[in-house]
Design goal:
The chain is of the alpha+beta class. The chain is built from two helices and seven strands.
Length: 109
């Protein structure tokens, strides 16, 4: 779909969190190499906790995941080469990141 090679930016109030160079597009998910920026240290533990919760399969873990992900959304934003995206679901694990995004907010249930 033309996404491969694009660089998407992850930002926080304190500055750049990192960038993602897209190397795989399996719509609606994009993935790529994550290069951390100076602001990544401040959110690294949030992303590690989010991923650990997403991989769990026990009672109540999704409520905990939602709370952690809400914290991530309060701290970071995502921009495509065309500008800020209003809604996204982003995972970062080491030097890999994968995400989906929407030009409109995700449906709230």
């Amino acid at each position: 779909m033309g996404f491969e090679g694009e660089i998407w930016q992850v930002h926080a109030a304190g500055g750049p969190v990192g960038e993602i160079r897209i190397d795989d597009a399996d719509f609606p998910w994009l993935s790529g190499r994550f290069t951390p920026g100076p602001g990544f240290a401040a959110v690294r533990d949030l992303f590690a906790r989010e991923l650990a919760l997403a991989e769990r399969d026990d009672e109540g873990h999704w409520e905990e995941w939602e709370a952690v992900y809400a914290d991530i959304r309060r701290h970071v934003s995502l921009s495509s080469p065309d500008g800020a995206v209003p809604e996204f679901l982003l995972h970062i694990d080491g030097d890999r990141a994968w995400f989906r995004w929407s030009d409109e907010p995700f449906d709230e249930e």
